C-alpha cells in the first residue's frame, strides 16, 4: 500500500477527555487509540492514530505536538512504520509541524518516505518548529537548519506571583477582579456563540487585513477538543475573554497556554487574571509545567545554531525580531510570556531541503498558517 496523507477528521468514537491533572506519560496511551499493527497503515490516519503517536513518541520533547490534532492538518503514514508526520500543503511546499512523531527505529524511514512522497509530486519540504533532537537529525540528512525562535515554559511547583517583579501584574489582576471578572472552566460546545463573539471582536481590533492564524497556533473545536481545557472570563455574566489550554506530553508533561482572545474594550489585566486563576487550578492538581508555546524570532542565540546553518537566514531572524512586527508581533507576544518569569528558552528550528535556506519555503510556512 502507498503512504497515506489525509486530514485529521473526527471519528465516530469521541476521544476520552484529558485528565484533570497534567497529562503525563505515566497515564500511557489510550489502548483504544493505538493503531492495530496487524491491520497495516490506518487508511484514514484519523485522530486516534495521531493522538497515539504524539502521546507515545515524545523523544523530541515537542511541547506543540498537540497542534497535530488540528483540523486541516494532514497526517502522513506509511505501511509497517509506527508514527505520523503532521503537515499542510502551501503552494509547492509541504510544511511540516515538528519532526516525525515516530518510534526511534521508524523515524528516518518515515521521513524518507515523506520526502519521496513530496518528490513524486514535484513538491518541496520545509520543517517548522523542529526541536533540537529533530534539528540534529535533519542536519545530518542534508537539510539546512537554523534557529527559528523559541518556546517558553514555567515550572509550577515553585511558582509564585509574590515579590517586586510581579507587583505591576498583581495590580492589573486585582483591578480585573475588582471590575467583576469571574473565571470558570467550561465545555467549549456550550459556549460556541460567546466564543464566536469574542473572536469577531478580537479580529476586528487587529485591522481590516487581519486574518486568524492556523496550523502553528491552536484552535477550539475539532477532533482534539475533548482533550483541551477552556477557561472563560465573564464580567456581569457577559463572556469577555478566554484561554484554551492543550495537553503536553513527555518529560515536561503539563498544559500549554494556547489560544487566547479577549474583547478589546474589556478590563485591563483580563488575560493575566484568567491565567493566574488557571495556574492555581493546575498547581492544586499537581501539574508540573505550564507551557507558553513557540514564538518566532525570540530566544535567538549563536550557541543554538547547528553546523551548516545559514548565516544570512540567521541575520534575517534577528532582523525580523527588530523589524518584523507586520509579519508577526514577536515582541508583543514575548512581553506577555516574559511576565510569568519563564525558564531559559527552548530553541526551535526550521529545516530547508538542500544547502540553502530558501526564502520561498520560509514564506510558505506563514502561508500555511493563513498569515497571507
Automatic annotation (TrEMBL):
GO terms for molecular function: aminoacyltransferase activity. Its main location: membrane. Residues 1-15 have a biased composition (Low complexity). Residues 56-352 form the Phosphatidylglycerol lysyltransferase C-terminal domain. InterPro entries: Acyl_CoA_acyltransferase, LPG_synthase_C, PG_lysyltransferase. Keywords: Cell membrane, Membrane, Transmembrane, Transmembrane helix. One of its GO terms (biological process) is phospholipid homeostasis. Pfam families: LPG_synthase_C. Residues 1-49 are annotated as: Disordered. One of its GO terms (cellular component) is plasma membrane. It is a multi-pass membrane protein. Residues 16-40 have a biased composition (Pro residues). It is found in: Cell membrane. Transmembrane segments: none annotated. The keyword Transmembrane applies. PANTHER family: PHOSPHATIDYLGLYCEROL LYSYLTRANSFERASE (PTHR34697:SF2). This is DUF2156 domain-containing protein. It comes from Streptomyces typhae.
Amino acid at each position: 500500500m502507498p503512504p497515506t496523507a489525509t486530514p485529521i477528521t473526527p471519528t465516530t468514537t469521541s476521544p476520552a477527555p484529558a485528565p484533570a491533572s497534567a497529562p503525563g506519560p505515566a497515564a500511557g496511551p489510550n489502548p483504544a487509540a493505538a493503531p492495530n499493527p496487524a491491520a497495516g497503515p490506518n487508511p484514514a490516519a484519523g485522530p486516534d492514530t495521531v493522538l497515539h503517536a504524539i502521546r507515545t513518541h515524545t523523544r523530541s520533547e515537542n511541547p506543540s505536538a498537540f497542534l497535530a490534532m488540528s483540523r486541516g492538518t494532514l497526517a502522513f503514514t506509511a505501511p509497517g512504520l509506527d508514527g505520523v508526520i503532521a503537515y499542510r500543503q502551501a503552494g509547492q511546499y509541504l510544511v511540516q509541524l515538528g519532526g516525525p512523531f515516530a518510534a526511534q527505529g521508524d523515524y528516518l524511514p518515515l521521513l524518507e518516505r515523506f520526502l519521496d512522497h513530496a518528490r513524486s509530486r514535484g513538491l518541496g519540504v520545509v520543517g517548522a518548529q523542529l526541536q533540537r533532537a529533530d534539528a540534529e537529525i535533519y542536519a545530518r540528512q542534508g537539510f539546512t537548519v537554523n534557529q527559528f525562535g523559541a518556546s517558553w515554559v514555567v515550572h509550577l511547583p515553585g511558582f509564585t506571583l509574590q515579590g517586586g517583579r510581579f507587583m505591576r501584574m498583581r495590580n492589573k489582576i486585582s483591578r480585573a477582579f475588582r471590575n467583576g471578572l469571574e473565571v470558570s472552566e467550561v465545555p467549549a460546545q456550550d459556549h460556541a456563540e460567546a466564543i464566536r463573539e469574542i473572536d469577531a471582536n478580537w479580529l476586528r481590533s487587529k485591522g481590516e487585513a487581519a486574518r486568524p492564524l492556523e496550523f502553528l497556533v491552536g484552535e477550539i473545536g475539532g477532533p482534539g477538543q475533548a482533550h483541551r481545557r477552556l477557561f472563560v472570563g465573564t464580567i456581569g455574566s457577559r463572556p469577555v475573554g478566554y484561554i484554551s489550554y492543550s495537553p503536553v506530553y513527555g518529560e515536561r508533561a503539563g498544559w500549554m497556554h494556547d489560544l487566547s482572545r479577549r474583547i478589546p474594550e474589556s478590563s485591563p489585566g483580563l488575560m493575566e487574571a484568567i491565567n493566574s486563576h488557571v495556574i492555581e487550578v493546575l498547581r492544586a492538581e499537581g501539574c508540573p509545567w505550564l507551557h507558553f508555546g513557540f514564538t518566532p524570532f525570540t530566544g535567538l542565540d549563536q550557541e543554538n545554531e547547528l553546523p551548516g546553518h545559514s548565516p544570512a537566514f540567521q541575520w534575517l531572524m534577528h532582523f525580523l525580531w527588530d523589524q518584523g512586527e507586520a509579519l508577526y508581533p514577536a515582541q508583543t507576544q514575548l512581553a506577555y510570556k516574559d511576565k510569568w518569569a519563564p525558564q531559559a528558552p527552548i530553541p526551535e528550528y526550521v529545516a530547508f531541503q538542500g544547502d540553502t535556506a530558501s526564502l520561498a519555503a520560509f514564506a510558505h510556512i506563514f502561508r500555511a498558517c493563513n498569515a497571507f
